[in-house]
């Protein structure tokens, strides 16, 4: 767990070196992004000095894998046929349905974003965006189960069965579809322009992370994830949980690194990780069409778009790691998470709902998780939160019943056990 950080030596002091503003704001076409100009000068040094052919993540063709790995792995759905052509039939056979042609970069962006946003993306990609401008086109877009707009896209993506068999996150979310908690998303579509980096600002709901770009990060709830590139390509860097703490032993330093803009990360940090004298393992690789990257929980990662990518992704809570997820959820930092805009608590409520859903799903798993221990109940009671979420009916109800938070929670769990569909049991 993160709290058991042992202080290792630090390899380097984080140096946030100034990047020449002329380079940062120079317009570069997408095709030249990783290249040098006529004088042999890099358009943007960190990117042109990267060796994109380097790869130390194992690649396995989908038919040869039936277990998730303890380490990052790339599951391939395309391979070269006898004529040397890329054959992606396994991609269409197993994962995506694209008869309607919806999985193209342009179509997806215009479907999930506003026209204005799409025009901004297209202008930067097809004309001349600068490194700085491109870094602003960040999009990890949630495919919300509760929003009809996404239904067609969600239904056209089928995760590989060996992963959905061990995943319980999707079952829990499925049960909670009547809830409106903001952080219940497990499905994503990810896109951006060449040169920009995909990132997800986890800090919005977890107050112990900072917003404004948690670029190098691990996924919320300590979930594992898969990410499948449908078109274009991107380059990944990943570090294992303990190795990350060896690289950045002090918390302030790690937070600083997590907050770096992508160009700073690849300018200052990536080279030191790749060329470090005392070897701390890392994973890096170019991910292309039909490559599905699977990463176990708490693998920190950062990516850079090499050719305008379109990918789809899912977070998983698996049978192997659900205990650490629920342990994370039921501890203070997560319980205290607030919505940045409304300052309303979201952490405690989400945790209660996810625990209730776990009880509905499997009471054995519930009992062996942190959802079912005294400390969690004490923590809930110590919380001074408004479980009503502004709903009038609650105030009256709670006045009459004078229930402690833990009692509300236990009632919720019992209700969840009885009901095939979840509804906000406390209002
Ligand atoms: C880059 O291109 C945009 C749009 O084409 C233009 O408005 C901007 O002035 C250019 N920036 C530089 C530094 O040339
Ligand atoms: C989906 O179909 C469209 C139209 O035929 C095509 O342009 C696009 O490349 C396809 N996407 C994938 C991921 O194969």
Q: Can you give a write-up of this model?
A:
With 427 residues, this protein is of the alpha+beta class. It has 2 domains: 276 residues, Jelly Rolls (Sandwich), CATH 2.60.120; 97 residues, no CATH class. It has 19 helices and 10 strands. The strands form 2 sheets. Strands 1, 2, 5, 6, 7, 8, 9 and 10 form an 8-stranded mixed β-sheet that branches. Helix 9 crosses helix 15 and helix 15 runs parallel beside helix 19. The chain is globular. The protein starts with 20 loop residues before the first helix and ends in a 9-residue tail after the last helix. The N terminus is likely disordered. Bound molecules: 2-acetamido-2-deoxy-beta-D-glucopyranose (2 copies). The site of one 2-acetamido-2-deoxy-beta-D-glucopyranose has 6 residues, from strand 7.
């Amino acid at each position: 767990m993160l709290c058991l950080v042992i202080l290792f030596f630090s390899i380097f002091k984080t140096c946030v070196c100034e990047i020449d503003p002329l380079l940062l704001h120079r317009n570069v076409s997408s095709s030249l992004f990783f290249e040098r100009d006529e004088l042999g000068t890099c358009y943007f040094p960190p990117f042109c000095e990267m060796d994109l052919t380097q790869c130390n993540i194992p690649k396995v063709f989908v038919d040869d894998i039936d277990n998730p790995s303890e380490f990052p792995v790339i599951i391939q759905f395309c391979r070269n046929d006898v004529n040397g052509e890329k054959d992606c039939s396994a991609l269409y056979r197993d994962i995506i349905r694209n008869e309607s042609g919806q999985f193209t970069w342009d179509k997806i962006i215009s479907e999930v974003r506003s026209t204005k946003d799409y025009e901004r993306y297209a202008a930067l990609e097809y004309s001349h965006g600068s490194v700085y401008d491109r870094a602003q086109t960040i999009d990890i877009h949630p495919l919300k189960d509760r929003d009809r707009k996404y239904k067609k896209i969600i239904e056209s993506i089928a995760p590989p069965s060996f992963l959905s068999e061990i995943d319980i996150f999707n079952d829990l979310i499925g049960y909670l579809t009547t809830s409106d908690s903001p952080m219940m998303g497990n499905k994503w579509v990810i896109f951006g322009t060449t040169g920009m980096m995909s990132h997800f600002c986890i800090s919005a709901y977890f107050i112990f992370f900072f917003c404004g770009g948690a670029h190098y990060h691990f996924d919320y709830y300590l979930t594992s994830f898969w990410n499948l590139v449908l078109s274009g390509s991107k380059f990944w860097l990943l570090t294992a949980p303990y190795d990350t703490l060896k690289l950045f032993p002090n918390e302030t330093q790690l937070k600083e690194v997590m907050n770096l803009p992508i160009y700073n990360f690849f300018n200052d940090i990536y080279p030191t990780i790749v060329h470090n004298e005392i070897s701390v393992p890392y994973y890096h690789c170019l991910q292309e069409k039909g490559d599905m990257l699977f990463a176990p929980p708490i693998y920190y990662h950062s990516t850079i778009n090499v050719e305008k990518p379109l990918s789809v992704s899912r977070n998983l809570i698996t049978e192997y790691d659900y205990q650490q997820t629920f342990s994370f959820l039921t501890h203070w930092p997560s319980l205290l998470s607030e919505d940045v805009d409304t300052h309303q608590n979201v952490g405690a409520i989400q945790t209660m709902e996810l625990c209730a859903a776990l009880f509905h799903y499997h009471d054995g798993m519930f009992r062996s998780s942190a959802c079912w221990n005294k400390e969690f109940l004490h923590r809930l009671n110590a919380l001074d939160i408004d479980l009503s979420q502004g709903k009038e009916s609650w105030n009256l109800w709670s006045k009459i019943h004078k229930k402690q938070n833990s009692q509300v929670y236990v009632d919720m769990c019992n209700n969840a056990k009885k009901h095939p569909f979840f509804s906000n049991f406390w209002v």
